[in-house]
Amino acid sequence: MWLQIGLWAILWVLGGFPGTVLSAEAVDEAAPLAHTTPRAGSARLEGAVYDTESRPIAGMRLVLKPRAEPNVTLETVTDAQGRYGFDRLAGGYYDVQLRWGDQTVVQVTVWLAHGRAHRVDFYIDGQRLKPK
After folding, report:
1. Average pLDDT of each block of 10 consecutive residues along the chain (132 residues)?
2. Around Cβ 28, how many Cβ atoms within 10 Å?
3. Structurally, how many domains does the chain consist of?
4. φ and ψ at 9, to 5 degrees?
5. Residue-level pLDDT at 128
6. The domain that contains 92 carries what CATH number?
7. How far apart are CA 15 and CA 97, in angstroms?
8. Helices and strands (H, E) in the chain, number of each type
9. Maximal CA-CA distance, the chain
10. Is the Cβ–Cβ distance between 25 and 33 less than 8 Å?
């Protein structure tokens, strides 16, 4: 499904595999996940951020907000390959913000099923990320 909000974002949701054990470590160990509360779920959200020529974008901040817990905010930063990941999430709706500095580049809402891994890749116009 393509979603255009002044730039392109692609949402690709994959189902998990029965018997899969999801790890509790961040994609980039140098940029660990910042949890405001202990997580105990079994859903995972992962993906990558690319420019429109499919080159990875490092240093993008992803902010994850579960709709069921309005006071909880989870954050991580993309690694050198543009990858990010959130582990041990409860199932439900989440707002995902892709941020560059103080600017929200795109915001989408995703549904995460309990016990499954989901993938959301973003393709954005890298020219919009340069300082003015």
Report:
1. 32 31 33 48 95 94 95 96 96 95 92 95 78 48
2. 18
3. 1
4. -135, 135
5. 63
6. 2.60.40.10
7. 22
8. 0, 9
9. 49
10. no
Rounded Cα gap, residues 59 and 74, in angstroms = 16
**φ, ψ for residue 127, nearest 5 deg:** -65, -30
Sheet with 43-51: strands ordered across: 2-4, 8-11, 117-124, 43-51, 83-89
pLDDT at 98: 95
> How many Å apart are CA 34 and CA 19, to the nearest integer?
27
Query: What single letter denotes the amino acid at residue 32?
Result: P
Q: Would residue 132 count as lying in a domain?
A: no
Q: What is the pLDDT of residue 39?
A: 59
Domain housing 9: 2-14+27-126
Domain annotation covers residue 98 = yes
Question: On the CB side of 89, how many CA atoms lie within 13 Å of its CA?
Answer: 32
**What's at 17, amino acid-wise?**
F
Q: Do the domain assignments include residue 22?
A: no
- Predicted pLDDT of residue 40: 74
